[in-house]
Amino acid sequence: MKTSRRALLAAPAALLATPALAQGAWPNRPVRIFVGFPAGGTTDILARIAGQILQEELGQPFVIENRPGAGSNIAAQAVLRSPADGYTLLLGSPGTNAINPHLYSNSGYDPRTDFLPISQIAEVPNLIAAHPGLGVRDAASLIALAKQRRLSYGETSIGGSTHLGAELFRVMGEFEATHVSYRGSSPMMTDLLPGRIDFGCDNLPSILPHIRSGALVPIGVTSTSRWAGAREIAAIGETLPGYEVTAWFGIVAPKGTPAEVIRRANAALRTGLTRPETVARLQELGATPLPGTPEEYQARNVAQYDRMGDLIRRAGIRAE
């Protein structure tokens, strides 16, 4: 009888070690990934690539939910208001990770403490290009001309990485210029291609076709080194050492999310981002895959938070 009683009392504990527990492990239902921009843009595309990887690796749907507005603050705040159970995640962008708290009087969060990094997904460089009529061919000649006469320049989102990329180029190049802000790539190209503005900064996938057609002159990519898909285009850092403003993206979760969720999601993304077909797809977009640890992602976010804050203060940038 004693043996039977011990066996009976031990049964619940034994059940906890059976597959019944695995059935309740994360995720056991669909997961939402919030995106702070409309469908079709770089951020949305990368979120869908990440969602597909997670779905394939973890066996549950990962649904993209677009919540555009306020430089992605609306999406970030919605995620923070959700339960920290791993079923509501955020596609982190330069705005949410480093820029917005410096740009807005009240972004509603601190990215260094209110979110837990899961994994980086990819880095996308921007590219500065000039109208051929200027007669410049690279960063050095554009800077020299800008010091002789006042030029005009455009970017595709106030406070975004294209804006900061253009501003850092101006600040480090030590020249003044007339700034024109646009709501996207297409409106800026309407003025840049016919020469109504002198140069502009856009993300690489959007502007590269105009470079290859000869309609615009490449001044340089904004990453620390040349982009693998167009080695003929110099990096601006070759002329201005220390220059770098890229758009980096990853998945984050609200603080309090269980460590096991972070671990499983990170492992899934690291596996998927190294697949040859995923690497090829990202490279077609002008993106570089960035599989890595949560600690690596957080280190980059914190470093860029300080760097972007300094640049925003120096350039006097404000959200409109």
Automatic annotation (TrEMBL):
UniProt entry tagged with the keyword Signal: yes
Domain of life: Bacteria
Signal sequence region: 1-22
Matching Pfam families: TctC
CDD domains: PBP2_Bug27 (cd13578)
Family: Belongs to the UPF0065 (bug) family.
Protein name, entry field: Tripartite tricarboxylate transporter substrate binding protein
Organism: Roseococcus pinisoli
Organism taxonomic ancestry: Bacteria, Pseudomonadati, Pseudomonadota, Alphaproteobacteria, Acetobacterales
